[in-house]
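Supplementary Methods. Inverse-folding protocol.

Structures were first reduced to a discrete structure-token string of length 407. This string, shown here, constituted the complete conditioning input.
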């Protein structure tokens, strides 16, 4: 419930938040944020997977005190989720990643910052203060660039790097291609700013952001997808395509390298694991944690929904390292179900972008409050007072014919 019992009557659910955001974002931004790869079936299935489970509530258990908090990097996270790293948040609102960081700090919710943020990692660290913040990392073909980012993240107090491993190539996002998606020139991919030349600075970005929301981008072909066997990297401002993730990445060489670079200040997690086999390799190679993710359905379309991939990862890991999950989380009950299936923590991506588009920092705060309140209520109604007690005893799975199976 909102503070002082004041509800935002215009926006009582994440679905309503999505609708508001839809009308507030320009088409290129909306398409870029909302779409999935190819037909978008994995994106949809990430959401639908939650409906396959139902909760078995227990009653008469004194649920007058509910503790929704979990520990994250030695600190108390107020609820069972954090805000996942998503690129280029200034497209949604001029407050961008600063708005998200301040909202997360206020709500005591962890934040992941994308390598492709439109705000520098130092500024986000400063806004986050002691609130846990992690840096999502792409290991670029230009290793020196990654090394510099890691050094900066250590210095700025990041707790961990989340190496994204589901992106050896960029997934095929057809609206992005059709719109010839491009970051408007007054925004910076801020962690690359020194390579881009003098920055116009935050203020300039802030001033022109509202204007930009209305404006259609000046399109220049943004290749970088497969064109036959070739990947074509366009010239011009820094993009994922010019600083491509490295398709040669592998466990033996690159995870070892990353651990050395990050040690001892920062943990190394892998984001984008979706099988038990890779989870075992992650443990074997000494990573500190796993995020079960398919990049919000933006990479390999046809991949398993993350909630469906979660149980095999949890089983493979056998509690040796934490397992987090993201993808399709839009309700407090989704968080409950993911935790019941063995996740230690959840991350939400698009809802934070919609919150930003809705009202900047206040919109992200609102999004966090909606999901936290729903999660708290779900715990109480299911008869659970502590997150660690949420287990698969509280779930059943329903198949297409309506058959109810205990887990
Ligand atoms: C617009 C957008 C940009 C994203 N940018 C990144 C990124 O830079 N790095 C990354 O690892 N994941 C990125 N992701 C994936 C998210 O971290 C997360 O895995 C995903 O959004 C979770 O799914 P959800 O949006 O359904 O919650 C992005 C997702 C979206 C929607
Ligand atoms: C710059 C992009 C590669 C960021 C991303 O991961 C995404 O759009 O899904």
């Amino acid at each position: 419930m909102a503070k002082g019992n004041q509800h935002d009557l215009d926006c009582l659910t994440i679905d309503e938040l999505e609708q508001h955001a839809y009308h507030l974002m320009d088409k290129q931004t909306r398409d870029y944020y909302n779409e999935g790869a190819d037909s978008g079936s994995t994106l949809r299935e990430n959401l639908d997977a939650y409906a396959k489970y139902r909760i078995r509530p227990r009653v008469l258990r004194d649920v007058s005190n509910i503790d929704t908090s979990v520990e994250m990097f030695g600190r108390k996270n107020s609820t069972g989720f954090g805000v996942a790293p998503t690129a280029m948040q200034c497209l949604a609102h001029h407050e961008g990643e600063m708005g998200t960081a301040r909202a997360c700090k206020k709500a005591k919710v962890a934040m992941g910052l994308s390598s492709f943020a439109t705000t520098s990692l130092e500024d986000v660290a400063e806004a986050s203060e002691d609130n846990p913040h992690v840096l999502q990392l792409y290991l670029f073909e230009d290793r020196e660039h990654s090394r510099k980012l890691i050094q900066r993240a250590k210095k700025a107090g990041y707790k961990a790097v989340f190496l994204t491993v589901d992106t050896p190539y960029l997934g095929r996002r057809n609206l992005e291609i059709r719109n010839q998606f491009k970051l408007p020139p007054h925004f910076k991919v801020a962690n690359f700013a020194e390579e881009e030349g003098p920055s116009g600075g935050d203020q300039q970005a802030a001033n022109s952001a509202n204007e930009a929301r209305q404006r259609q981008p000046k399109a220049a072909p943004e290749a970088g997808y497969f064109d036959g066997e070739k990947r074509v990297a366009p010239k011009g401002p820094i993009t994922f395509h010019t600083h491509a993730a490295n398709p040669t990445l592998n466990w033996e060489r690159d995870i070892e390298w990353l651990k050395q670079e990050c040690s001892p200040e920062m943990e190394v997690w892998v984001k984008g694991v979706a099988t038990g086999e890779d989870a075992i390799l992650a443990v074997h190679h000494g990573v500190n944690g796993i995020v079960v993710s398919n990049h919000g359905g933006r990479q390999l379309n046809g991949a398993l929904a993350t909630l469906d991939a979660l149980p095999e990862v949890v089983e493979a890991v056998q509690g040796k390292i934490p397992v987090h999950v993201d993808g399709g989380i839009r309700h407090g009950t989704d968080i409950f179900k993911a935790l019941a299936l063995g996740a230690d923590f959840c991350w939400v991506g698009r809802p934070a972008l919609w919150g930003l588009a809705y009202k900047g920092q206040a919109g992200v705060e609102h999004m966090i409050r909606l999901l936290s309140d729903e999660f708290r209520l779900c715990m109480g109604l299911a008869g659970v007072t502590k997150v660690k007690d949420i287990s698969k005893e509280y779930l059943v799975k329903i198949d297409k014919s309506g058959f109810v199976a205990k887990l």
